[in-house]
Amino acid sequence: MHTSEQKKHLKNLKEGGSALCLTCDCQIAISLLALSNVLEQLCIIMAGIDTINRISDLSPRKTARMAGVFYLIFIIATVLATYIRGKFIVAGDAAATANNIVASQGLFRVGFVTELVSAVFFVLAAWALYVLLKPVNKNLALLFLLLNLGGVAVECINALNLYAALQVLSGANYLSVFQTSQLQAMAMSSLNLYTNGFLLPRYFSAPGYFPLVT
């Protein structure tokens, strides 16, 4: 009888140990998965840093070509974003503009993201030109880079007006206190703010090209 109870107790211990091992294995697997995600993000960051370092290590001719490629992508992305945005905006008609955005919110988001992508490639082009000009005159090259970075910052802030228009027309519960015509007017106002502020970044970036001709 005593031996039977001991065997039963040992069996329970083994089952409990197996369950504990499975729990530990699951925790270890989850920890490893989280660690792999962190490492993946670090690899993406390091890849971006490595790209910048490679630009710095290129010959002047290759750096100039890379700057041209980045600037070309910037132009294409800007034209594409402008084209997409133009498909939604109906001048002087807030209702039609709002209906266009609500009907194709996904495409409107693509236009917004494309706007940000163009800003990224403009920064890369400015960095490549900075690397190219730095051996000639470090101070002027730094001035060129800072002015262009200021222009990109203003451009990104101005792009938030596009996102604001999308948010106003999102149909969220907190917007139910407004009438439909009021929401459409607010969305149109945000789009007009973006249009009016479209040239503001150029006031920063345009003077940055003066060092190129001095």
Poorly predicted regions are: 16-35
Strand content: under 5%
What is the CA-atom radius of gyration, in angstroms? 28 Å
Number of strands: 0
Question: What is the H-and-E element order?
Answer: HHHHHHHH
3D structure, described in words:
84% of the residues lie in helices and 0% in strands. The chain is mainly α and 214 residues long. The protein has 2 domains: 1-57; 60-213. Helix 3 (94-103) packs across helix 6, helix 4 runs antiparallel to helix 5 and helix 5 (138-168) runs antiparallel to helix 6. The chain is elongated, with a radius of gyration of 28 Å. The chain starts with a helix and ends with a helix. Mean pLDDT is 77; it is low at 16-35.
Identify the notable features of this structure and list them briefly.
about 210 residues, mainly alpha, about 0% strand
Topology, element by element:
Elements: H1 2-57, H2 60-86, H3 94-103, H4 105-133, H5 138-168, H6 180-196, H7 200-205, H8 210-213
Helix pairs in contact: 2-4, 3-6, 4-5, 5-6
